[in-house]
Design a protein that fits this description.
The chain is an alpha+beta fold. The chain is built from 15 helices and 37 strands. It folds into five domains: 112 residues, no CATH class; 194 residues, 3-Layer(aba) Sandwich (Rossmann fold), CATH 3.40.50; 98 residues, Immunoglobulin-like (Sandwich), CATH 2.60.40; 213 residues, Rossmann fold, CATH 3.40.50.880; 77 residues, Immunoglobulin-like (Sandwich). It is elongated and about 150 Å long. The protein starts with 6 loop residues before the first strand and ends with a helix.
């Protein structure tokens, strides 16, 4: 059939054509059933038969052909043959279409071009295309609303797709994952033939209505090679698999769109450094990005703190560049605070003109200092220097400020008292403590497991054998992150000393010294004596000494929800000159205690569509999430208790966090918990890929240049089965009429 028939939707059913031989077989079997028997009057019958034999044969042959044709046509209709546009039979085909329409619902589609946004124009275009189709003809439309993940809105008739398009009024706040959307199309292609498109010769029509944002098609970024390269690889992988199914994606953007529209956006709202306690000054950095081709001058930025507007600041933002504006803020209370930065004048893309961030201001860190070697003067007191660092004079921290630490000192013997509750402190510091009774160790283990931090600094009074017995276990169930060994000392303090050989510059407790200007403050401090230690598996060595064995100086380990630190030398001047260098001791102790005393908080700032889990210290009841528009929805599920008297709330599902803004989780029995959802700042980069670049990416991506925008006109095919079924019916009717006619005529002759 060559160029006449393009193929069959169900080629395996072609065997049914063999059933057309059944009428012939029946005819032949009926002929074999009669035996000629001579009898006297036979010569008269033969004479009459010879006169009508040719006419009877023709009548029977026509009846046989009609029966055979009816069976063959029925079998052929079941196989559903189809043909292409160039076939001589093309005018007889159904011309039905199986179309996938992908509407880009990413945040960048909200750019306004005149009175309409790009998204509104794309939806209007989709509506025009769908209205050209007809469900009565068998056309099918699969409508996909694509953002961070594809949403299948319609999968049957054009009428259903048209009604779903009426519900699309605004884009999402998500980026477009084109690979995920095309993977949905690939799954459609793998499902095989539909009622309107046969597999094996034709193609599934795919139309992508988008703003052609360049980063969607070229997601590689020089600053973040790995994740973006994998995203680009995923896109090319799905395009390659679409090629196996002969699927071409027609990409269409609204006509007249600018190749690089100007746009400003708030890219980040961040504290410049770790937040101190209430009353401590903090600098909030607002980063503004200019994605356009021209410099923007005198851009006015506004910062709101918990809804209170601060004086605005102006900045100049270079073309395709960024600028930072710094606001000075002093939070009056501990706890969560909502920062909202906004470009005051705004522009045509509203989604990135505002950005919020929830920050948590920590309360004063409660520190319990256990003094194992008290002295009459500060220079001889084990933790005298520590107290001077964490409890400075009021003038040193500024008028009106609150101290960042709340310290209490106890002797080791007082720890066994019933009224001493370690859970009332954030950090417990054991300074040169000889040993601890078992009852105190049990209380410490429970407190640290519940989220407290323990710091153990060594010295000449520490009984290493007792410490290993009570605080260390090789299986990791003990508190200490390392087993203690022998005491190591230099031969002569006047001739030699140990120094810090290396330290973890990324760790919050030591990152202050990562700056080359401040690095010598830590690495050049003399250490004359220390106790060797062997860390357990899983412990993190934060700093080492330059002795022959590279002995640990500072070791950290996680202990359930808490942390344990081991400082292998003293914190007083007995074994080291550290206390005599305030420029080293003050930042070290402050950063260390702030890190150790911080309560780990679940994320409070997430991307759209990201589930969020929050915690509270009160038993929650009637947990409800309040969306930015004020809508309320109860959270399904039960809260789970954890160690440290904390409760994990039911997760806020991703479908409830798809809109950018500030959310609240409210409950009976606890304070509200806020969290912010923000648009990916890269959505503000509106630079568009050109049609030439698009088609050069992959030959399964194409643009539609026809003014009518009727995608998929090339290589379209249609089915012939309805016409074949009609011919089958005609053959059956003709066979019935012809058989009745012959029967009546021959009965009359008899």
């Amino acid at each position: 059939m060559g160029g006449w028939i393009g193929g069959f939707a169900h080629p395996a059913l072609l065997w049914g054509l063999g059933l057309a031989s059944v009428p012939i077989l029946i005819h032949l079997l009926n002929r074999q059933r009669h035996k000629p028997m001579p009898w006297a009057a036979m010569r008269f019958v033969l004479a009459a038969y010879r006169k009508t034999r040719r006419r009877v044969q023709l009548e029977n042959l026509l009846l046989l052909l009609l029966r055979t044709a009816a069976v063959a046509l029925l079998a052929l209709a079941v196989t559903r043959p189809f043909t292409g546009d160039k076939s001589p039979l093309a005018t007889l085909t159904e011309g039905r279409r199986d179309l996938v329409v992908i509407v880009d619902g990413s945040a960048s589609m909200g750019l306004r071009e005149g009175v309409e946004s790009v998204f509104e124009r794309s939806v209007k275009r989709a509506r025009e295309i769908v209205r050209k189709l007809s469900g009565s003809r068998g056309d099918r439309v699969r409508l996909i609303y694509a953002g961070q993940y594809p949403r299948l809105l319609s999968w049957t008739t054009p009428e259903q797709a048209s009604s779903m398009l009426d519900t699309l009024t605004a884009p999402t706040d998500e980026p477009l994952d084109l690979a995920a959307a095309l993977a949905d199309v690939l799954q459609r292609a793998k499902e095989g033939p539909s009622e309107s498109t046969a597999d094996g010769g034709g193609v599934l029509e795919v139309l992508l209505l988008t703003d052609l944002q360049a980063r969607v098609f070229h997601p590689e970024d020089s600053n973040t090679k790995s994740p973006e390269t994998s995203a680009r690889g995923a896109l090319f992988d799905v395009l390659e698999r679409l090629r196996e199914h002969k699927v071409t994606v027609v990409v269409e953007a609204p006509p007249g769109s600018e190749p690089n529209p100007p746009n400003l956006g708030i890219a980040a709202v961040e504290p410049m450094a770790r937040l101190g306690g209430p009353g401590q000054p903090a600098e909030i950095v607002v980063e503004v990005r200019n994605f356009g081709p021209a410099t923007k001058n005198n851009v006015r930025i506004v910062l709101e703190v918990d809804g209170d507007r601060r004086p605005s600041e102006t900045t100049d933002v270079p073309a395709r560049g960024r600028s930072q504006v710094v606001f000075s803020v002093a939070f009056k209370t501990a706890g969560e605070h909502v920062l909202t930065a906004r470009i005051e004048d705004g522009d045509r893309l509203a989604c990135d003109n505002q950005r919020s961030r929830v920050v948590v201001v920590p309360p004063a860190v409660r520190v319990l200092l256990v003094n194992g070697a008290p002295g009459a003067i500060i220079e001889e007191d084990e933790i005298g220097y520590l107290r001077a660092v964490i409890e400075p004079a009021s003038d040193a921290i500024g008028r009106g400020s609150l101290a960042p630490f709340d310290a209490r000192e106890l002797a080791p013997g007082e720890l066994s008292a019933p009224d001493v509750d370690f859970t009332h402190y954030d950090v417990i510091w054991l300074a040169n403590v000889e040993s601890l009774p078992a009852i105190v160790v049990d209380k410490l283990e429970a407190a640290v497991a519940g989220g407290r931090a323990l710091i153990v600094s060594l010295g000449d009074r520490v009984d290493t054998a007792a410490a290993n017995t009570r605080l260390f276990r090789a299986d990791g169930s003990g508190l200490l992150p390392a087993s203690l060994g022998e005491r190591v000392a230099v031969r002569s303090r006047s001739e030699a000393y140990y120094r810090v050989k290396s330290f973890d510059t990324t760790h919050p407790a030591l990152s202050f010294f990562a700056d080359e200007r401040f690095k010598p403050l830590l690495t050049e401090i003399p250490v004359y004596e220390f106790i060797s230690a062997r860390p357990i598996a899983g412990a993190r060595v934060l700093a080492t000494l330059d002795d022959d064995g590279g002995s640990p100086l500072l070791v950290e380990r996680a202990y359930d929800r808490g942390r344990v630190f081991l400082w292998t030398t003293t914190i007083d001047p007995l074994w080291t000159r550290l206390p005599e260098s305030p420029a080293t001791l003050v930042p070290l102790v402050h950063e260390w205690l702030h890190y150790a005393g911080a309560t780990p908080e679940p994320p409070r700032n997430v991307a759209p569509g990201t589930p969020l889990v929050a915690e509270t210290s009160h038993f929650p009841r009637n947990v409800t999430v309040v969306r930015p528009d004020g809508a309320r929805r109860p959270l399904d599920g039960d809260s789970q208790s954890t160690s440290g008297d904390r409760w994990v709330l039911p997760a806020v599902p991703g479908k409830d966090t798809e809109t950018a803004g500030v959310y609240r989780i409210e409950m009976d029995g606890g304070a509200p918990i806020s969290f912010a959802v923000n648009v990916d700042p890269r959505e503000g980069d509106l630079e568009r890929i050109t049609p030439t670049e698009l088609t050069a990416m992959h030959f399964r991506l194409s643009t539609d240049d026809a003014p009518s925008g009727d995608p998929g006109t090339a290589d379209r095919r249609g089915e012939l089965w309805r016409w074949i079924a009609i011919l089958c019916l005609v053959a059956l009717v003709c066979e019935s009429l012809w058989a009745a006619f012959l029967g009546r005529k021959r009965s009359v002759r008899r």
